[in-house]
Amino acid sequence: MLHSSFRHSDTAGGYGGEEFVAILPETDISAASAKLEQLREMVANTSIELGPNKQEVGVTISAGLACFPEDADKAMQLFAIADVVLIDLQLAGPAWLLDQVFSDPDLN
């Protein structure tokens, strides 16, 4: 689902335990936010079966966004900013996508 949601020029894959990263070249924050919202909706409309009784459960995602070079000009800074945004989202509740750029001067 993750790979089929992006363009051939994009890169998406696992990053850490239960996290994923998507790199969208030549994409502004508005277009990236819209793409991630489409992915969030696709995931929210998909259920998986768990256990021997095949109980259906729903899945949600939250995403933190950072944009090059507006937020940072180094990869690790972009990851750090996106991670801070994601933590803020998780504190706000499940399945929210922040559609504004987060900039922390201490990370830049």
Task: Summarize the structure in short.
This protein is α+β, with helices and mostly antiparallel strands and 108 residues long.
Description:
It contains 2 helices and 4 strands; from the N terminus they run ββαββα. It is of the alpha+beta class and 108 residues long. The strands form 2 sheets. Strands 1-2 form a two-stranded antiparallel sheet. It has a two-stranded antiparallel ribbon with strand order 3-4. β1 and β2 (20-23) form a beta hairpin. The longest helix is centred in the C-terminal third of the chain and has 18 residues, at 75-92. The model is unreliable at 97-108 (pLDDT under 50).
Topology:
Elements: E1 11-14, E2 20-23, H1 29-44, E3 47-50, E4 55-58, H2 75-92
Antiparallel strand pairs: 1-2, 3-4
